[in-house]
Amino acid sequence: xxxxxxxxxxxxxxxxxxxxxxxxxxxxxxxxxxxxxxxxxxxxxxxxxxxxxxxxxxxxxxxxxxxxxxxxxxxxxxxxxxxxxxxxxxxxxxxxxxxxxxxxxxxxxxxxxxxxxxxxxxxxxxxxxxxxxxxxxxxxxxxxxxxxxxxxxxx
Length: 155
Prior knowledge:
This protein has one helix and eight strands. The chain is an alpha+beta fold. The strands form two sheets. Strands 1, 4, 5, 6 and 7 form a five-stranded antiparallel sheet that branches. A three-stranded antiparallel sheet has the order 3-2-8, with no helix packed on it.
């Protein structure tokens, strides 16, 4: 008998035991993942609250001035030579993780030149860099959404 015989193929009973154990572990992991996905799904299905106004903050990079403006949904708001139209503003209810987001159309208006779209899309209060506006003079980001029946979304 070779001195390496102990490292040979497993005996039939040992192999069956290992495969049975592996199968049980694999099925347990699959069941755990299925149950975990079911527990997370209701939280993802929560409905957002629609706000009437977006609270925006903006930075003038030339003067280093930071200002806050409240922009009503559906109305144009002017910041320097930028015209901002808030198309939608949504936030999560107070019992959820705080988050506010606004869908913005931002257009640059230069005298004697046609209007140029600078940004169109969703901006998120918790992640301003996720969907940032690229502009040489101004930075604009969402702080919060407001409703008629409350003063803040807490987002």
